[in-house]
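ok, trying the design again with the full structure, not the truncated one.
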């Protein structure tokens, strides 16, 4: 891991006041006890469930089953806490900002762990597990702008007796509530919370892209890969597996993010402190 730390810190140091964009996937939260979707860990969701469950179509046809599946999935998210990788990325944002650099963290995760760790320049491009929204578009609690804190909604009756009669409903219009997440048959532009225009801008303007724990299997990573390769900017991927990145322009750093990122941030902050002391 020493070589990976050196390569990462060399790239970050050379960036000076440029635009650093970090794109994280489910792998960054594995050390917090949250299973990935497509990863190789034994509990990966993809090994048990199919994309049909995460669709508007399934919700409309089977709202009770949809709610039950998501509540079961979110049970592990509720008690998870940020791990050293999340904390290091928040520290990296502060370090780069102190140099006058631009920073953005784009996460595919809905677990809110980056937010809990203190990341501020953050886009949760697939939504948030701690919020729900009205299924009726145009409602003040629904797309394209509205949502509600999950803990402001009475979900206990459904948990006690899951049925069509106990499904959570919108306090504004009475329509069914749904998860505030991007489903597979929806578009990134379907809700302003997904921040898609800002993500597109970041892909066009980034000077360095750091991928952390992603399988590169969704549209947001494909866009960053395409733009980064076209503009010939440095792109790095932190992943402990031996699976090669999907593009030759991406430099692979074979290490766990929960180990590599704290080490790199420690080196960077120590070097900055030494220069100030001098």
């Amino acid at each position: 891991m020493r070589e990976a730390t050196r390569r990462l810190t060399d790239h970050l140091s050379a960036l000076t006041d440029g635009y650093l964009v970090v794109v994280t996937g489910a792998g960054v939260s594995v050390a917090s006890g949250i299973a990935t979707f497509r990863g190789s860990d034994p509990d990966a969701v993809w090994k048990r469930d199919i994309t049909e469950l995460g669709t508007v179509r399934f919700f409309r046809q089977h709202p009770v089953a949809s709610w039950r599946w998501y509540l079961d999935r979110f049970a592990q998210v509720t008690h998870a806490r940020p791990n050293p990788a999340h904390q290091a990325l928040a520290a990296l944002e502060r370090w780069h900002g102190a140099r006058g650099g631009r920073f953005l963290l784009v996460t595919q995760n809905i677990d809110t762990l980056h937010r809990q760790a203190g990341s501020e320049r953050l886009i949760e491009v697939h939504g948030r597990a701690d919020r729900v929204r009205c299924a009726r578009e145009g409602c003040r609690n629904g797309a394209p702008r509205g949502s509600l804190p999950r803990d402001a909604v009475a979900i206990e009756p459904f948990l006690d007796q899951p049925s069509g009669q106990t499904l959570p409903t919108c306090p504004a219009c009475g329509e069914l509530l749904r998860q505030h997440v991007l489903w597979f048959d929806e578009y990134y532009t379907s809700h302003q919370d997904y921040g898609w225009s800002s993500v597109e801008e970041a892909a066009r303007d980034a000077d360095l892209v750091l991928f952390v724990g992603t399988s590169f299997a969704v549209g947001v990573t494909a866009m960053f890969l395409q733009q980064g390769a076209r503009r010939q900017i440095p792109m790095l991927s932190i992943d402990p597996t031996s699976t090669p990145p999907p593009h030759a322009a991406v430099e692979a750093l074979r290490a766990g993010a929960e180990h590599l990122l704290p080490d790199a941030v420690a080196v960077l902050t120590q070097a900055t402190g030494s220069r100030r002391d001098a």
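Keeping the full-length input from now on. The first strand starts at residue 19 and ends at 24.
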